[in-house]
Design brief:
Length: 307
């Protein structure tokens, strides 16, 4: 048996690894039971997160009952996938507007509208999304969700992964959950964009996007689930902690998205669409398809202030 004080893990070095052993894989909030869907087929892709929706044409306006069932599916599965959706950019935006006003992001390249972000990746223009993150947490009110459409799919690779951050919170050790209750963290766009944006571009935007504070643990405004709400792209430090203590705690919290049991991985096909709850998830775009081209367009739905 390994001595926990052995040189492999010195006693004076905090263990910030992922906890081993059985996991609590709770897909629904306490007291909520799974119910069938009447207006479409649903095929789960994971235990707690990710489902393919069958029998819905995103190019057609949603009826009230269909929108309600899709919303329930989104809250239950956190990310929904739709294949074989030959839709236009405007139809993509019209679908997303069923959940609210669309936001713009002047920090990223735009498509045919300022509400559309276009990601065109080649070997000469590599991807920078291959880090676990939640979109635009550097804003006072981060996005509610996003709808991503693959315009061009590489012959291999280019998958996207999502992690259920409610499951991540549930599986933290009890002492860590107690420790982070009530803590707040600072989120800043600069660290996430400094990897590929020029210093002048960053400096010009800092007045428009100043750092903001959010709770380390967010309560989902609809389901009531507690979700871990820090990410390595934008979270810089925890308020009130010394830098070393903050860095150590954030490393532990960031690592939770890496647990496979909390994840779903989606292999894109032509005309596939993903719709995810940005309040409950993190995602990671796998950058393994060079020198091939991958083109995606995303629209984001304006959200509310985390609490």
């Amino acid at each position: 048996m390994l001595d926990v004080a052995s040189p492999l893990r010195p006693a004076h070095v905090p263990d910030t690894s992922i906890v081993e052993g059985p996991r609590v894989l709770r897909r629904l909030p306490d007291g909520v039971e799974s119910r069938p869907y009447d207006l479409f087929g649903l095929r789960p892709l994971g235990r707690v997160i990710g489902a393919e929706i069958e029998g819905v044409d995103l190019g057609r306006p949603l009826t009230g009952p269909l929108r309600a069932e899709l919303d329930r599916a989104l809250l239950e599965w956190k990310v929904l996938f739709f294949r074989d959706q030959d839709i236009t950019s405007e139809q993509q935006r019209a679908f997303a507007r069923n959940w609210g006003e669309l936001e713009t992001n002047p920090l990223l390249p735009q498509g045919d509208s300022d509400e559309v972000t276009r990601f065109a990746r080649t070997e000469s223009m590599p991807a920078f999304e291959n880090v676990w993150h939640t979109d635009v947490t550097f804003r006072p009110s981060p996005a509610l969700g996003s709808v991503l459409r693959l315009v061009r799919v590489p012959p291999f690779g280019g998958d996207t992964m999502w992690a259920d951050m409610a499951a991540a919170y549930d599986n933290l050790p009890a002492d860590v959950r107690e420790r982070i209750t009530g803590l707040r963290a600072v989120h800043d766009f600069v660290p996430g964009f400094a990897r590929f944006a020029k210093a002048g571009f960053l400096a010009a935007r800092q007045d428009e996007f100043p750092p903001v504070e959010h709770p380390v643990v967010r309560t989902h405004p609809v389901t009531g689930r507690r979700t871990l709400f820090v990410n390595p792209s934008f979270t810089t430090h925890i308020v009130g902690l010394e830098r070393d203590e903050s860095d150590e705690l954030l490393r532990l919290l960031f690592a939770q998205a890496h647990v496979p049991e909390f994840q779903v991985r989606f292999r894109w096909t032509e005309n596939a669409v993903a719709f995810w709850d940005n309040r409950a998830t993190q995602h990671y775009a796998v950058n393994d398809y060079a020198p091939h081209v991958r083109i995606a367009e995303r629209v984001a739905i304006a959200g509310d202030r985390p609490y």
